[in-house]
Write a structure and sequence with these properties.
The complex is a heterodimer. By secondary structure, chain A is mostly helical. Chain A is about 75% helix and about 0% strand. The longest helix of chain A has about 35 residues. The longest helix of chain B has 16 residues. The chains are: A mainly alpha, B alpha/beta.
Chain lengths: ~550, ~250
C-alpha cells in the first residue's frame, strides 16, 4: 500500500484514541467508560465460559445446520450490501483528498478494505464467540467464524466493484435486484440460526421455523458449496480438521482480498454516488438513528396522516410525527416485523408456559420496538433546538412527540401477543391474551415516556466504533437499566397484589394484577409526562450544535 | 399599543462550561426597527439569539417580547417571535408545502394556505412545494426557514445569518422581505457577516466582542466613527482588541 495511505490510516487510528480520551473530561466520564467496557467484557467472558462448558454437548448434525445457516445469511447480507452500494465508499473527509491524490486505485482499495476489515474485527470476534459456543469445539470454531465475518466486507466490496461501471449491463442488472428481499431472506435464515444458538434443540425440533429442510434442498446445497470450508471448519471435532479447514478458510480470504484489489474498474462515478448516499445516512444515524435513518422514497409523498386535533400546536406535532411514520411505512413494517417475529418465535419455541410467553412478548416486544421506532424526540436530536422555539408548553410538546410512536408500538405488540396466544393455545385462553395485549398500550406509553425523558436529561448517541462509543455504551446501558427499574416498579406491585388476592382471598389474582398494573402505569405515566416536560424545558442544545 | 419596545433584553448572561459567552448584555429593539448584530466568530451573537428565542436557558437576565416575559410566559413570548437559525434543519419526511402548513397550525395562522402560497412564491419555492425536506439544498432550506418565519406574522424576528447559502436573487428577495417586515412594524434582529447587507438594512448596530457590547448606536453614529473608511474597515478595527480604534469605539 502507498506509504501516504499507511500514514493516513495510522494517524486516523491515533486520532480515534485521542478523540475518545478527549471526550472523557470528568471522573463521571471515566466511570461510564469503565462501566461500558466492564459490562461488555463481562458479557464476552460469560459467553466464553458458557461456550467452554456447554460446547461439547452439541450434536454434529444440528451444529452443521446452524453453521450453514450462519454462513449463508452473512453471504446474502454481504451480497445485498455490495449490490446496494456500488463502487467504493469513502467518508466525506477522504473523498476529495483520496480521489485527487497521486495514488493508484488499487492502493485506495487496499486502504479502504484494510480499514473495513479492522472495523469489522470486534464484531467478528464477538460473533465467533457467540456462534462458537454452540459448535462441537468452541475453540476451533471461534477463529473460523470470525474469518467468515471478516470476509464479508471483502465479498461486498468485490461485488460492488464488479457492478461499479455506470451504464454497463451488470450495473443495470444490479439496479433491478430487490435487495430488500435479499435482506428479508437473510433475516429469515438468521432468526432460526439465532434460536439454534440460544437453544440447539429448538433448531431441529421446532415445527414453526424449520430451516433444516431448506438447507438440505439440492439447489441450496449447490449454491452454498463454496461455503463448505467454513461449515466444516466451524464443526471441526479434531485439531487436524480444524487446522486443515481453518487454513483453507484463511487462504480463501486472502485470495478474495488479492483478487478484489486487482479488479480493474473505474469506480469514481459510483464512488461519488455511494459516498454521498452513505454520508447522508451516517448523518441521519448520528441525528437519531433507527427508522428515521433510512432514506425516504419520493413516492412516499402521497401518504399523509389526517390532521389530528384540528388547528392546534399539539395537533400539528402529532400530525408531523404520524406523517413521518407513515412515510417510512415500508421500513417501519419491515423492521417491526423482523423484531416482533424474532420475539414471538423465541416466546413460542423457548417459553412453553402460555402466560409467561405472552408477558415475554409484551415486555421484550415493547423494549425492542421502542429502540427501532425512534420517531420521537430521540430521533430528532439535531432539531431539538428548533422544537424548543415553538410556542408550546414542555409537557404538551413532550406528549405530542411520543404519542404516535408509542400508540403504534402498543398496537403492534398487542397484536403480536394475541397472535402468539393463537399460535400456542388456539382459541382457548384468547380473552386472557387479549387482556395482556391491551396492556401493551399503557406499557408502551410508559416505556416511550421514560426513554424520552431520560434521553432529554442526557442525550446518548451511540454509534458503535465512533469516537467515545465505549462511554456512550456505558450511558446507554445505564439508561436501559433505569428504564427497566422504573417499569418494574409498575409491574411489581401488580404481581404482588395478584399473588395476595390469589393466596389469601382465593379469587382469580390475574385480573386484580392487571387492574393494579393499569393504575400504576397510568400514575407513573402522568409523572413521567410532567418530568419529560420539565426535562425538555431544561434541555440545553448548546453542547450539540455549538 | 404602548410605547414599550417590541424586544427588551436586560442583563442577559449565558456561559458554556464556566466560560461566559454573553456577559450582562442589555438592549432594546423598537417596533419597525432593524438591529444589526455584529461581531467576530465566537463573540456571542448566536448564543444571544438562541437565548432570546427560548432555546437556551438564560443564566441571568430578563427578556421581554411584545410585553411577554420569556421566563414567566414562554409560550406567549414564543408566539410573538420567529427565529431563523444559522443552519435550519427541515423535517426529512415533510414536503416544503407541508412545512408551511405545519407552521401555520403551530402558530394558529388562520389564512395559512393562502399565505403559504404567497410566501412560497415570494421566496421562489413554488416549484419545490412537493419536495421532501431531505432533498433540499442548503439555500433551499434557508429560503424555507425564512418563508416559515414570515408566515407566522411575528412581532419580533430573530435572524441568524439569514443570507448564508442564498443565491444573488435569493439575497435580494430576502433583503427586500426584511425591509418590508420592518416597514409593517416588526422588530428585526439581524445577525450577519455580510456587512453591506447589514449596512443597507439596519437602523441601529450592536457590536459584540467576547460576549460584551463594544458598540451600540445608530447607523449615523457608526458612520460618524467610520470617518473616511468603509464599514468593513471600521468593524475590523473596532473588534481588533487593543487597537486605538477599538478603544475609541468603546468610549
Amino acid at each position: 500500500m502507498h506509504s501516504g495511505l499507511s500514514l493516513l490510516a495510522r494517524l486516523r487510528r491515533r486520532g480515534w484514541w485521542r478523540g475518545s480520551l478527549a471526550r472523557a473530561r470528568t471522573p463521571r466520564d471515566f466511570l461510564l467508560i469503565v462501566f461500558g467496557a466492564g459490562m461488555a467484557l463481562a458479557w464476552v467472558a460469560a459467553l466464553v465460559v458458557g461456550g467452554m462448558n456447554g460446547g461439547a454437548a452439541v450434536e454434529i448434525g444440528e451444529a452443521r445446520g446452524v453453521a450453514m445457516g450462519f454462513a449463508l445469511a452473512v453471504c446474502v447480507l454481504s451480497m445485498a450490501a455490495g449490490i446496494t452500494h456500488r463502487g467504493v465508499y469513502l467518508p466525506p473527509e477522504e473523498l476529495e483528498v483520496l480521489l485527487s491524490a497521486p495514488v493508484s486505485r488499487g492502493d485506495i482499495l487496499r486502504y479502504r478494505l484494510r480499514s473495513a476489515i479492522l472495523r469489522t474485527l470486534p464484531s467478528a470476534i464477538l460473533v465467533g464467540i457467540v456462534l462458537g459456543q454452540r459448535m462441537p469445539q468452541p475453540i476451533y470454531a471461534w477463529p473460523i467464524a470470525a474469518s467468515w465475518v471478516l470476509c464479508s466486507p471483502i465479498l461486498a466490496q468485490g461485488l460492488s466493484l464488479l457492478l461499479a461501471a455506470e451504464g454497463s449491463r451488470r450495473a443495470r442488472w444490479a439496479q433491478r435486484v430487490p435487495t430488500g428481499l435479499l435482506r428479508v431472506a437473510a433475516l429469515l435464515i438468521l432468526i432460526p440460526v439465532l434460536l439454534g444458538v440460544v437453544d440447539p434443540e429448538a433448531f431441529s425440533d421446532s415445527s414453526v421455523l424449520d430451516l433444516s429442510g431448506f438447507l438440505n434442498h439440492r439447489f441450496v446445497a449447490v449454491v452454498a458449496l463454496p461455503l463448505t470450508p467454513w461449515v466444516r471448519g466451524l464443526t471441526a471435532t479434531s485439531p487436524g480438521q480444524a487446522i486443515g479447514w481453518g487454513a483453507c478458510c484463511f487462504a480463501l480470504c486472502g485470495a478474495l482480498f488479492a483478487t478484489t484489489v486487482r479488479i480493474k474498474v473505474d469506480y469514481r462515478e459510483a464512488c461519488l454516488t455511494t459516498s454521498r448516499n452513505l454520508a447522508k445516512r451516517r448523518a441521519r444515524v448520528q441525528a437519531g438513528g433507527s427508522v428515521s435513518a433510512l432514506e425516504l422514497r419520493p413516492g412516499s409523498v402521497g401518504l399523509r396522516a389526517p390532521w389530528w386535533g384540528g388547528v392546534s400546536p399539539v395537533g400539528s406535532v402529532i400530525w408531523m410525527r404520524s406523517t413521518e411514520i407513515l412515510r417510512h411505512g415500508s421500513h417501519v413494517l419491515l423492521m417491526a416485523s423482523a423484531q416482533l417475529g424474532l420475539v414471538v418465535s423465541m416466546a413460542v419455541i423457548l417459553v412453553p408456559d402460555v402466560l409467561a410467553g405472552s408477558v415475554m412478548v409484551l415486555v421484550l416486544g415493547t423494549f425492542q420496538l421502542s429502540n427501532v421506532l425512534r420517531t420521537d424526540l430521540r430521533g430528532d436530536l439535531e432539531r431539538l433546538a428548533q422544537h424548543k422555539a415553538w410556542p408550546l408548553g414542555g409537557t404538551s410538546l413532550f406528549l405530542a412527540s411520543i404519542l404516535p410512536s408509542a400508540l403504534l408500538t402498543g398496537s403492534l405488540v398487542g397484536l403480536a401477543v394475541v397472535l402468539r396466544g393463537l399460535l400456542v393455545g388456539g382459541l382457548t385462553g384468547l380473552p386472557v391474551h387479549m387482556a395482556i395485549g391491551l396492556f401493551a398500550l399503557p406499557l408502551s406509553l410508559l416505556w416511550f415516556g421514560v426513554e424520552n425523558a431520560l434521553f432529554l436529561v442526557k442525550p446518548v448517541r451511540h454509534i458503535p466504533g465512533q469516537v467515545g462509543s465505549l462511554q456512550s455504551m456505558g450511558r446507554l446501558l445505564l439508561h436501559s437499566m433505569m428504564s427497566l427499574a422504573l417499569v418494574l416498579l409498575v409491574i411489581l406491585p401488580a404481581v404482588l397484589s395478584g399473588i395476595f388476592v390469589e393466596h389469601y382471598l382465593g379469587a382469580d389474582g390475574r385480573w386484580i394484577a392487571g387492574f393494579v398494573a393499569l393504575i400504576m402505569a397510568s400514575v407513573f405515566f402522568v409523572l413521567v409526562a410532567r418530568g419529560g416536560g420539565w426535562a425538555l424545558g431544561r434541555f440545553d442544545p448548546s453542547g450539540l450544535v455549538q | 399599543m404602548s410605547d414599550s419596545p417590541a424586544l427588551e433584553v436586560i442583563g442577559l448572561t449565558r456561559g458554556y462550561g464556566g466560560k461566559l459567552a454573553v456577559d450582562g448584555l442589555s438592549f432594546e429593539v423598537q417596533r419597525g426597527e432593524v438591529l444589526g448584530l455584529l461581531g467576530p466568530n465566537g463573540a456571542g451573537k448566536t448564543t444571544t439569539l438562541r437565548s432570546i428565542a427560548g432555546v437556551l436557558p438564560m443564566q441571568e437576565g430578563q427578556v421581554h417580547i411584545a410585553g411577554h416575559d420569556l421566563v414567566s410566559d414562554p409560550v406567549g413570548a414564543k408566539r410573538s417571535t420567529a427565529w431563523v437559525p444559522d443552519d435550519p434543519r427541515p423535517f426529512d419526511a415533510l414536503t416544503v408545502n407541508e412545512h408551511m402548513l405545519f407552521s401555520a397550525r403551530m402558530y394558529r395562522i388562520e389564512d395559512g394556505v393562502g399565505r403559504s402560497r404567497e410566501l412560497l412564491e415570494r421566496f421562489e419555492l413554488s416549484s419545490q412545494r412537493d419536495t421532501l425536506g431531505s432533498a433540499l439544498s442548503r439555500g433551499m432550506r434557508q429560503k424555507l426557514a425564512l418563508a416559515q418565519a414570515w408566515l407566522t406574522r411575528p412581532r419580533v424576528m430573530l435572524l441568524d445569518e439569514p443570507l448564508t447559502g442564498l443565491d444573488p436573487r435569493g439575497i435580494r428577495s430576502a433583503r427586500a422581505a426584511i425591509a418590508a417586515a420592518a416597514a409593517e412594524g416588526c422588530a428585526v434582529v439581524l445577525s450577519s457577516h455580510q456587512l453591506d447587507s447589514v449596512a443597507a438594512l439596519a437602523d441601529r448596530l450592536l457590536i459584540l466582542q467576547r460576549g460584551k457590547e463594544v458598540f451600540a448606536g445608530t447607523m449615523d453614529e457608526a458612520r460618524a466613527l467610520q470617518g473616511e473608511g468603509d464599514l468593513e474597515e471600521w468593524f475590523l478595527a473596532a473588534t481588533d482588541e487593543g487597537s486605538e480604534a477599538a478603544e475609541c469605539t468603546q468610549d
